[in-house]
Amino acid sequence: MKNYEKEIGKMADVCKVSFVGSVDGEGFPNMKAMLKPRKRNGIKEFWFTTNTSSMRVGQYKQNPNACIYFYDRKLLYHGAMLVGTMEVLEDAATKEMIWQRGDTLYYRKGVTDPDYCVLKFTAKSGRYYHNFKTDSFEV
Fold first, then answer.
1. pLDDT per residue over 92-120, tens digit each?
2. Band (1; pLDDT cuts 50, 70, 90)
3. What is the pTM of this model?
4. Nearest to 80 by CA among 67, 91, 93, 92
5. Which of 31, 82, 102, 139 is deepest in the core (most CB within 10 A)?
């Protein structure tokens, strides 16, 4: 099995929008478009920002099963889905690590805003669609 870390990592870095999936209280999948990850560690860990009050945060607290999806719109038919778990992090060190200038547009009270939190996704497996074929792999 080929290692797709470089190709998928590049998609995650250049995309403007990523998609995150959660599971609702009735067991149904929910998908949401979000800004690209703020930070990543290979294709194993990804960090996103979001509102603590969001529906998605509540879902991850109830059921951490999640997926994320990236695609390269320049390379038609290239996309990757990673499956794993999502943690909701509200500690000061993590929030400061991810904070960027301009985030006050979303979190008016700054890095200490109680409605600002970090989502950390940890991948277990993935599927990479490219060149009209799909490959499954473990992360």
1. 999 999 999 999 999 999 999 999 999 99
2. very low
3. 0.94
4. 67
5. 82
Q: Report the 10 Å Cβ neighbour count for 44.
A: 14
Give φ, ψ of 59 to 5 degrees: -65, -45
The sign of the torsion formed by the CA atoms of 100, 109, 41, 66 equals negative
| Cβ–Cβ < 8 Å for 78, 72 | yes
Distance CA 60, CA 78 (A): 27
As a whole number of angstroms, the distance between CA 71 and CA 77 comes to: 8
CA distances for 34 relative to 92, 97, 132, angstroms: 22, 19, 26
Q: Tell me how crowded residue 122 is: count the other CB atoms within 10 A of its CB.
A: 16
The torsion defined by the Cα of 126, 54, 95 and 92, in degrees rounded to 10, comes to -130
**pLDDT of res. 113:** 97
Spatial separation of the C-alpha atoms in residues 63 and 87, rounded to whole Å:
10
d(CA 22, CA 77): 24
